[in-house]
Amino acid sequence: MLKSERSVRETGIDAVALKPAECDVRRATELSLPSVVIDYEGRAHLPDRETLADLAGSLDLRLTTPVRADGFDPLGPADPVDRVPEEAGRVLVAGHPAYLTEGERKKAIAPRLGAAIEEVPDAWVGTEGIERLALATGATQFELLSRSTERDVRSLRAAGFGGEVAVYAPTVISDDLDTVLDAVGGYVSRRGPVARVLPEGAATDASASGRAREVLAAASGDYALCGTETEIRARVDRLREAGADTIVGYPARGIEAFIA
């Protein structure tokens, strides 16, 4: 086993999220974790059915599918959804506007999410921007890691939510701040609470300095899993103690950082 594979296992994460626009998703079989989530980045980057079937045959595979996108809209005609083999699980999301046409962005989410859950009852539901709708489905809640995630999950459990909770987090196995900021600085800078306090026009990568660097350093710890294997494992353990069931890590430095 390669050192990096040991490192990934030692973080305690359960699954890896891959972006097909960034890497060949077939390399998921090279990872040391048995579960993979493939993000949706537009129809042009959707893996073909053969690739998905091969991956689903050897891994616990889930594919993110936006319920408003043509072809994944359960109230519209099928096309891309036909590429998804029965063996592959789904993560139902409203869909990032960047990957939707103007017409798709105008579609009502609630009826489509409800219809999709009826079709795929074991699907996870991405909560970003549709928290109440997602919770109403009773399906596995797929949350983006934030500074309030542990508190939010504890509240869900205290309120009686008995379903599963999965947490998605960009992951950087490094305690070097420059490395961390180059990997996730741009991502965390777009989160609302961070964007509101960042100095206007500030750099968000390793070149950030002064107040911007302080803000980004703190935000990286809030919105991503960063640090040594031991530090990440401690955060993962806290999430589990709060009530999270599955932790999905996105290799923010690229899939190579999780493989070689």
N-to-C series of helices and strands: HEEHEEHHEHEHEHHHEHEH
Kindly name the structural category: alpha/beta
Please name the fourth-level CATH homologous superfamily of the largest domain. Answer: Aldolase class I
- Helical fraction: 25-40%
Helical stretch count? 11
Query: Mind telling me which CATH architecture of the largest domain this is?
Result: Alpha-Beta Barrel
Number of domains: 2
CA radius of gyration is 18 Å
Question: What distance lies between the first and last C-alpha atoms, to the nearest angstrom?
Answer: 10 Å
Strand order of the largest sheet: 1-2-3-4-5-6-7-9
Structure summary, number of beta strands = 9
Average pLDDT: 93
Principal-axis shape equals globular
- What is the CATH C-level name of the largest domain? Alpha Beta
Q: Which assembly state applies to the chains in this document?
A: single chain
DSSP strand content? 15-25%
Largest sheet: 8 strands, parallel, barrel
Residue runs with pLDDT of under 50 for 5 or more positions: none
Task: Say what the CATH topology of the largest domain is.
Answer: TIM Barrel
